[in-house]
Each structure stands twice: as structure tokens, then as C-alpha cells.
Amino acid sequence: MPLRVFNSLTRRKEPFTASKDREVKFFVCGPTVYDYLHLGHARTYLAFDIITRYLKYSGYHVRYLMNVTDVAERVVQRAEELKRDPLDLARQYQAAFLEDMQSLGITSINQYERASDYIPQMIAQVEGLVKKGVAYETETGVYFQVNKFPRFGELSGQSHEELGLRRLELCSSKRSPEDFSLWRKYEKGLGWDSPWGYGRPGWHIEDTAVSMAHFGETYDMHGGASELIFPHHEAEIAQAEALTGKAPFVRYWLHTGLLSVEGRKMSKSLGNVVRIRDAIKEYGVPTLRFYFASFHYRKPMVLSLTRLRKATAELTVINKNLQAFTTAPPTTNPKQERRLQVLLERSESAFKRSMDNDFDTPKALSVLKALAKNLSSLRVNQEAKLTAEATFQRMANALGIMPQYSPQ
Ligand SMILES: [Zn+2]
């Protein structure tokens, strides 16, 4: 069975194919850098780290690009509160973000690109959209005219009536409430000169400009948190496809489920926001990665102390079982060596079956748990031991779980 992936665009699992030579161009929406990141971000970035690791394990070459949103209202507001320069503040939190990613062992991202480095590309795209007649200028900025793009609503599965009820970016100068901004005019503050005067790009065009600068007019895979589907990803599709006339802009759209804390939404007003760095101090990276992998990426995820303790205990058992196997003195035992060979083959194919089914990490973890348990009682020669350790490590590495055992 080949790899199958749930595509948000078609709302079904589809066979996964790379556009050429097993190369996968993959873009994920990065964070807006105005504060430390929390576990909601970790949920998304860990999920896509596992997905990328598994694609590599399956023989794909992945070019994983993430943008960093340093031009945004939230950055500007926070900088004003703190009387700081906005881009300077963004640099500080970008550094903290990269530190968090490194601590979490998220090593799959090849390239991070800041929005502020792509202003000319954004302006060119907005100019192109105006030229095509799908965008218009008003006294407050430049807007994308949604009714000129009939496929708007396809990704989020909304009809034109439903879209009409959504009021994006309240502004009386827009032709229609669902139109979204491509460029906003400002008199001062963070901004750049443009054909429409001084101002800043809209959020959606930032990501289209960054991804298209590196991947071209169409590419393989785009990921993000599910709350970004509307309007953000819908807008990205509209901008790119209206500009190039080529569809689909992205062949596979992948979205992660929400994270809640003890059953409640994580929010500043509830005071239950958990920063990545605090969680690492409290639970450690191996437990966190194991815990996050125990939820399927599309399902809602609950952060619960009881379940975190259970994850720690499960990880300890795996490590103990592996330790028992690796530290046992090697003995030649053809019967057990044959059993081991069958066990390894069956485990790895069960592992692949689980992961090929839209990255079913909870099932893949149970395969590894069972394998460790079965290994613990086997006594084999040195060569067979090394093969078993390498097989286990290969699968563990594809999930990015890091059992603290060290192979001999
Ligand atoms: Zn984005």
C-alpha cells in the first residue's frame, strides 16, 4: 500500500505522489514573532516534523520551507506598548522561536524566511492582481475582490451564502465585506513605499510571496494549523491562482487539530497558556515528543497532566525493555535469531502500514512499544542485536522520539 494522505482540499485520503523525482516541496505557515511560542505552536510544528521525517524515511527528498511573520499588526502593537522598534522586537522573538525549535529537536526545516525580506515580491504580486482586475485600490488600501474568484470557499467548504455572512477586516471602503486586504495604507510607523503610497502588506500575501519565491507557481504540500484554513489559506489559494492562472496552487493541504489544556481552550484570558520553554523544563523533550506523537495530527489534542505522566511511564518501559535487550551478553541461538528476524520484519511493515495511513502515529507508537517488549526477552548474537537496534532506531527516528537508551 502506498502512502495515503488526507487532503483538506478534497476532504479525503488520497495516494501521495511527489511532482518529480520524489522531491517534495513543503511549506508551513510559521509563527508571528511578537512573544514566546506556546504548546499550540509545538503541536503543529512537531506534527509536521514527524511527517517530514517519515517522508524522508520513505525515500522522499523534502524541501521544507517556513516563513516567519515579522510584519503584522500584533508585532506593531506589541512594539508600541514596549516602545520598541517593531522589526527589532520581531528579531528577538524569532531568535527565541528558533531556540525552541532546536530544543524540541525539530531539525527537518531546511529554510526559514522572514516576511520583511520579501516586500518587493509582495508588491509585485499585488500589482499583478490589480492588473488582472481581481484587486482594487481604495483610500485605505488594496483589496482582493473575492467574487472575482469563483473557487473561493472551496478549501473551507463554504458556499457563497456562508461566505457572505463572514465579515473580514471591517472597513467601509471595501466593495464587499468578504474582500481581504493585500496592502494597507499607513501614514507612519512600520512600512514601505509602494505604488499605492506608504504602507504594509496584508498577512495572506506575505506567505504567497515567500512560498512562490522559492517553489514557483505550484508546489506539492502546504501545512498549517486548522484555524488557518479560513480565511488565510483560502486567501493564499485565491491570490496565487488568480495571479498565475494555474491550479491547484498546492496539491496537498494538511492541517493539524487544536490543542486544549485539560479540556479547555488555551488562551491568554484563561491564563492557561503554556510556553514551549516552560514545558520543556517541566517534562523534558523525550516525554513531550512521545506525548505529542501519541495523538493523530488531525485530531484535537488534550494536554493533561495525568496523560503526560502516563506517557513518561510508557517511555520508561520502552527504555527498560530495550536496555534489557541491548545489555544482555550476546549468545548464539539460531532459533531465537530466526524469531527475531521475523519479529523485525513484521514490526517494520506494521509500522509502515500505520504511517502510510495518513501518518497514524498513535498506531506506529504501539508497534514500537510491542517491539521493545518482545525484544526484551530475546537473547541473540552480536550481529543480530545490532540489526535489531538499527531497525528500532530507524523507526524511532522517523517519529523523532528519542528513547534514552544507547545502543552498544
Ligand atoms: Zn500562512
- Tally of contiguous helical segments: 13
**Overall 3D geometry?**
elongated
β-strand percent reads: 15-25%
Mean pLDDT over the full residue set: 94
Gyration radius, in Å: 24 Å
Give the CA-CA distance, first to last residue.
35 Å
The number of distinct β-strands equals 14
Identify the strand order in the major beta sheet. 5-4-3-10-11
Work out the helicity level.
40-55%
Low-confidence segments, given as residue ranges, are none
Provide the structure class: alpha/beta
Secondary-structure element order, N to C:
EEEHEHHEHEEHEEHEHEEEHHEHHHH
Which small-molecule species are bound to the chains here?
zinc ion
Biggest pleated sheet? 5 strands, parallel
Give the topology, please.
Blueprint: E1 4-7, E2 12-15, E3 23-28, H1 39-57, E4 61-68, H2 73-82, H3 86-103, E5 111-114, H4 119-131, E6 135-137, E7 141-144, H5 160-165, E8 180-185, E9 199-201, H6 203-215, E10 219-225, H7 229-244, E11 250-256, E12 259-261, E13 264-265, H8 276-283, H9 285-293, E14 301-303, H10 305-327, H11 334-356, H12 361-376, H13 382-399
Parallel strand pairs: 3-4, 3-10, 4-5, 10-11, 12-14
Antiparallel strand pairs: 1-2, 6-7, 7-8, 8-9, 12-13
Helix pairs in contact: 1-13, 2-3, 4-6, 6-7, 8-9, 9-10, 10-12, 11-12, 11-13, 12-13
